[in-house]
Write a structure and sequence with these properties.
Order of helices and strands: HHHHHHHHH
Distance between the termini: 65 Å
Largest sheet: none
Number of strands: 0
Oligomer: single chain
C-alpha cells in the first residue's frame, strides 16, 4: 500500500472570484485617475508634491474599499472578516521581529544583486518637504501594509490559491505585488525580486495563520526599517 500524500495546507475557497477582482481593479484605476485629474485641476503643480500624492492615493483606496463593502454586503458577508482580518496564534512582537529580520536580509540581498544607486520616484517624494516625509512615513509604515495585506493577501490571494493551489497561488500573488511596486523603485528589477520574495513571505504567514492581521504586522515590521533608514539619511 502506498503512503498517503503529505498535504501541507489546503487552499481557501472564497465566495468571490476573478470577476470581482477585475471589477475592483477597474474601480481603483478609475478612482485614481479621477482623483488625480481633480487634484491637478484644483492644486495645479502642488498636486505633484509628496503629501498630496499620498492623499490622492489614500482617497482612491477609500473608494476601492467602499466598492468592496458594497459587493460583500450584497453577497451577505462581512468585509473585513471575509478578508481574513481575524485573530491569529502568533504574538505581535514575533511577527514584527520577523518583518524586521526579513527587511534586513532584503537589504543584504539588494547589495549582492548590485542594485544601482539612483534616486527613485519614492525618494524624490520624500525630498519634497518635511510634511511629505511625515505623510509618507505615516502611510508607509502603519497604513500602507494594512491596506496592501487586505487587498493582496486578503482579497486576491484566496482566489489565486483556490485556482492554482496554495504555493503557486501565493507566488503569483507575490509576483503581482512586486510588479506593482516597480514604478516606485525606478523599474529596477532587483527591487522587484526583493519585494516579490517579501510578498511570498507575507503570503505564507497569511496562509499559515489564516489572518491578514498577522501578515500586516509582519509587513509593518518589514516597512519600518527602510523608512527609518531613509528618513535618517535625509
Amino acid at each position: 500500500m502506498s503512503p498517503e500524500p503529505l498535504i501541507l495546507a489546503e487552499p481557501e475557497t472564497p465566495f468571490w472570484g476573478f470577476g470581482e477582482v477585475f471589477l475592483m481593479v477597474a474601480v481603483f484605476l478609475t478612482a485614481l485617475g479621477v482623483v488625480g485629474v481633480g487634484a491637478v485641476g484644483v492644486l495645479k503643480d502642488r498636486a505633484r508634491l509628496g503629501y498630496w500624492q499620498v492623499a490622492e492615493e489614500f482617497v482612491a483606496y477609500l473608494i476601492l474599499f467602499a466598492a468592496l463593502k458594497v459587493v460583500f454586503f450584497w453577497a451577505g458577508h462581512p468585509l473585513f472578516r471575509s478578508l481574513g482580518w481575524v485573530a491569529h496564534p502568533f504574538s505581535p512582537a514575533t511577527l514584527v521581529t520577523m518583518g524586521l529580520a526579513l527587511s534586513f536580509l532584503s537589504g543584504m540581498l539588494l547589495i549582492l544583486l548590485r542594485t544601482p544607486e539612483i534616486q527613485t520616484p519614492f525618494e524624490k517624494m520624500l525630498g519634497d518637504s518635511i510634511v511629505s516625509r511625515i505623510a509618507i512615513t505615516v502611510f508607509g509604515i502603519p497604513l500602507g501594509p494594512v491596506i496592501e495585506e487586505l487587498l493582496f493577501r486578503g482579497f486576491l490571494q484566496p482566489v489565486m490559491t483556490s485556482v492554482m493551489g496554495v504555493f503557486p497561488g501565493i507566488l503569483v500573488t507575490s509576483l503581482l505585488f512586486g510588479a506593482l511596486h516597480l514604478s516606485q523603485n525606478a523599474g529596477m528589477w532587483q527591487s522587484g525580486v526583493i519585494i516579490t520574495l517579501a510578498g511570498f513571505a507575507f503570503g505564507t504567514v497569511r496562509h499559515v495563520s489564516g489572518s491578514t492581521k498577522a501578515s500586516s504586522l509582519m509587513h509593518i515590521g518589514y516597512n519600518s526599517l527602510p523608512f527609518f533608514l531613509t528618513l535618517l539619511h535625509k
